[in-house]
Amino acid sequence: MASTFQVQVVATTPYSDQKPGTSGLRKRVKVFQQEHYTENFVQSILRSVRYPDSVVPEGATLVVGGDGRYYLQDAIQIIIKIAAANKVGKLIIGQNGLLSTPAASNLIIRRKADGGILLTASHNPGGPTKDFGIKYNCRNGGPAPEVVTNRIYEDTKTLSEYYMAEVPDVDLTKLGTQTVGAMEVEIVDPVQDYAALMRELFDFERIQEFLRVYKDQFTVLFDAMHGVTGPYAHRIFTVELGLPESVLMNFHPLSDFGEGHPDPNLTYAHELVERVRQESIQFGAAFDGDGDRNMIISHDWFVNPSDSVAVIANHAARFPKFRQTGIRGVARSMPTSGALDLVGKALNIKHFEVPTGWKFFGNLLDNGDIDICGEESFGTGSGHIREKDGMWAALAWLNILADMSLNAQKLITVREVVAEHFHQFGRHYYSRYDYEDVDLDAAKKMMAHLEDLTASQALVGTAVNGFHVTHMDNFSYIDPVDGSKTTNQGLRILFKDGARVVFRLSGTGSHGATVRMYLEQYESDRAKCFQDVPQVLQPLIQTALQLSKLTEYTGRSKPTVIT
Ligand code: VG1
Ligand code: CO
């Protein structure tokens, strides 16, 4: 590799659409492939994060990797050249460019890097006509907060040139350190450090013992959906925990995810769902493209993600990590159900409600206010890193099931764990309706209509279809750690007795709009905790549709995805 290089100064013009969304900049691959598009954004990242109060000085170390999707290799070579020309000191890159989002967060923390550039559009489809994404993470391992993403965006609007080292492409297959001029490039095993972390957090011996004792009864199946978790699942579940390879599905990363939609929900992970039901599998888990989301199911139960994080928090003392100390606090995103709050109250610890997006947990985790947090969108995690973590959630469930079963000397099933939870806390019936690819204008008009309803407060104190409206607002949040304020985070209609509907527009889509309608209804009667979810929620759903005039505005009579 070149020991010195020429720096090419490339004149460019700004793009006006490089505003990062809920989690990074996500666009069609074709958009990133436009002349200078990716280069501009990378240059703006490096310029913006170099401010004195932020993270990347010259000579910084950055972690780089992604979920294996189409365009990953090209993007990494661009980043290497721009980083070298901007005097970055070192890049730590996953072999073949692969790093799951949780593993990248872990590497930033363990290797004391100054930040990272994560190349993923997460659960969005991949391939030449589908999506790509670029996200910047800070020194704490977490997604950049809005002050940083706004600075990046401002910079993209005025950028007039970027710098590129004139060097050949780096071989990403070869483990070890190479140099690009003065910059070091270390290619690392994407799984090793992450697997070591999981071994520290969970009781692998106990899980192994449980899998051995209940080998005939406790059947498992993992679906990597052709995303990046394949190699991680292989190492952890087969090599380390001793399960056969047959428990893994779709575990070879593919640049188009096998033309699938790598989103672990009942609609897109139907292959897993069908097999789990047909083969009477006791424990099934699916992960999204970049490995930060998870879905937990069994042949007789689908664990709603809002319940999942509540169950995990309630049983956290079973994990070696929290055995001595317990957990200090919990947090959930606003649309996530209140199940976690009840656990927080029962454990007598703090509980927080933050806007949608993992970046909002960062300060609370850094500050030691919370240890476990989650989102209704299949995101669960803890302070071990600063991203949500799909594999972590699956291992947490395995640890809980192992501990409970070995203690009881009989197999405790997923459904039994959930039943016990409902018995202790009651149940938050929950559903989310997603209307994907709605006309942007129509979606905005619907939201404006809801804004007006909220502003007038006319419904507050009245009953709609028997639901008593107690509160309506547009959710805003003041970060208790740094005092920063975030507004416009979703329209909430709260009803008496703990029912609620929330409307938001997605901030991760790459085209059109996605309307999300969140529905929640609390049931305290323990005898009524095992009813059919759609049936229980039907009146609330009707009321939400009626108040929002969703069909009228969007022309949609049915959602694209129901969770
Ligand atoms: C969605 C989810 C949100 C999640 C985000 C990123 O955002 O609702 O909870 O944090 O995706 O997840 P939105 O703005 O589309 O509702 V991932 O796995 O795409 O990084
Ligand atoms: Co993801």
TrEMBL record:
Entry-linked InterPro entries: A-D-PHexomutase_a/b/a-I, A-D-PHexomutase_a/b/a-I/II/III, A-D-PHexomutase_a/b/a-II, A-D-PHexomutase_a/b/a-III, A-D-PHexomutase_C_sf, A-D-PHexomutase_CS, Alpha-D-phosphohexomutase_SF, PGM
Top EC class, one word: isomerase
GO CC, alphabetical: cytosol
GO molecular function: magnesium ion binding; phosphoglucomutase activity
Annotated GO biological process: carbohydrate metabolic process
Keywords for the protein's UniProt record, in alphabetical order: Isomerase, Magnesium, Metal-binding, Phosphoprotein
Pfam family, one: PGM_PMM_III
Cofactors required: Mg(2+)
Keyword Nucleotide-binding on entry: no
Catalytic activity: alpha-D-glucose 1-phosphate = alpha-D-glucose 6-phosphate
Domain spans labelled Alpha-D-phosphohexomutase alpha/beta/alpha: 18-161, 212-299, 307-412
The EC number(s) this enzyme carries: 5.4.2.2
PANTHER family referenced in this protein's UniProt entry, alphabetically: PHOSPHOGLUCOMUTASE, PHOSPHOHEXOMUTASE FAMILY MEMBER
UniProt family annotation: Belongs to the phosphohexose mutase family.
Protein name (Swiss-Prot/TrEMBL): phosphoglucomutase (alpha-D-glucose-1,6-bisphosphate-dependent)
Organism classification: Eukaryota, Fungi, Fungi incertae sedis, Zoopagomycota, Kickxellomycotina
